[in-house]
Amino acid sequence: MTFARAVTRCFPWVGVAPYVLAQFLGATVGSFLLVAFFGMRAVGRGGGVAALSTGVSYGQGIVTEALSTFVLMLAVMAVAVG
After folding, report:
1. Residues 28 and 14 occupy one common structural domain
2. Distance CA 30, CA 35 (A)
3. In 10 A of CB 80, how many CB atoms?
4. How many domains does the chain have?
5. Residues 21 and 35 in one domain
6. Are residue 43 and residue 76 in the same domain, yes or no?
7. Which range of residues forms the domain containing residue 62?
8. pLDDT tens per residue, range 24-51
9. Average pLDDT over residues 1-28
10. What's the pTM?
């Protein structure tokens, strides 16, 4: 979202790197807090790595992820960008 907003000139380019860094730091701290509160059962058997369900091909997973991301970006851009 940050990159897309910068490309459309709705967010200053000088703020992109710090903002993305803050997003990564927030996600990392949130992940550690999740494990701190719920223990390793919050991570699951896969070590926190996402995996496709049985019977789902890589192509189906990629298409699903791309479409979901597009719909999410479309919704956020429609609401956040006047």
Report:
1. yes
2. 9
3. 10
4. 2
5. yes
6. no
7. 52-82
8. 999 999 988 988 888 877 776 666 667 7
9. 89
10. 0.55
